[in-house]
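Nucleotidyltransferase family protein structure dump, as promised
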Amino acid sequence: MTRTQDPDAGAHPAEQTAGPVVGLLLAAGGGRRLGGRPKALLVHRGRPLVEHAVGVLCAAGLARVHVVLGAGADAVRERADLDGCVLVDNPDWEQGMGSSLRAGLASLAGTGARAALVSLVDQPGIGPEAVARVLAALRDGTSLASAAYDGVRGHPVLLGSAHWTGVAAAATGDRGARGYLREHEREIALVECGDVARPHDIDTAADLGHLE
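structure tokens r here:
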């Protein structure tokens, strides 16, 4: 599916000055430590978690959102309202987050996007305030920025288009962009978000208490 609204309508200030930013939501995880429950379908505030995560990106000002699906993809399409999003299938989701990041970045080809704002579906404590702060760090296609929590790098992460090829090449297993970002650490603008967000992951049954 593709968005029906004008991608420039209500654009975030960073988009207006430096070209479009696409939200890239990684939502393919199978929830192995949650008994095989796809993370995208966990319920948060009465709706699938993936739907909540898309809403956060849109509320932060992103007019374009690509969602990478894997585990339970058919069920996610059926149960979650993802109207207006570009849905990207990752048949290799079991290989880890790296495969989803590669699939998501590949889906941006031809969009004219200057940067991707990468977020994870299993972090419901990160809201639009944190996303907007990281978006504001965009300067051009060479930008690298990341939310930080008490000085520790976390998500979301802003990847300028100049970095996409390198990130995709380094994204293997569950490492995602970590290896690439470690190599380019001096280039990353850290954006403190610890006062407006909680970066916990939903990985185990004990973590389900973070859902509302």
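The chain has one domain: 21-197.
lmk if u need the other ones
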